[in-house]
Amino acid sequence: MISGCEVLKEEGNKLTRKVKFGEMSMIEEVEWHDQTIVYFEMASGPRITNVVSHDENGELLLTFSFANGLPPPALDADGNPKPFEVLNKVLGGGIDSTLKTVREMVLDGRVV
Questions:
Q1: Which of 42, 21, 22, 20 is nearest to 30 (CA)?
Q2: Which of 1, 52, 67, 82 fits 86 for a cystine, CB–CB 3.0-4.6 Å?
């Protein structure tokens, strides 16, 4: 889950930011297209796409895609991969945080 973020450059519908995940930080390029799609591309390779849409009942949907596959599982003290439940917990926390932010943006009118 993101623990800090600093916008380094913003131009039009793109920005470069330094994102902190606990003790680890990385540079991320972000490109968005109002109320439809956001691309997050990290210098280390992962590309995440968030798509905002609506279902047939008009309910807001948010779809996450990991273009380069899911991140590898964390390793335990012996160097063995931890179960994917650990990865799901980490990704789930980030998704929960994103959903909370998108819901706030819907309520204040930034996303329709």
A1: 42
A2: 82
Task: Report the run of H or E that residue 98 belongs to, with start and end.
Answer: helix 84-107
Convert 56-89 to b/e letters by CB count within 10 Å (16 or more is b).
eeeeeeeeeeeeeeeeebeeeeeeeeeeeeebee
pLDDT number for residue 111:
64
Pair 19, 32: CB distance under 8 Å: no
Render pLDDT for 86-100 as a digit per residue (tens, 0 to 9): 666 666 677 777 777
- Write the single-letter amino acid at 89: K
Distance of CA 28 to the CA centre of its chain: 11
How far, in Å, CA of 20 to CA of 10, rounded? 18
The DSSP result for 65-92, as a single string, is EETT-PPPPPB-TTSPBPPHHHHHHHHH
Task: State residue 31's pLDDT score.
Answer: 93
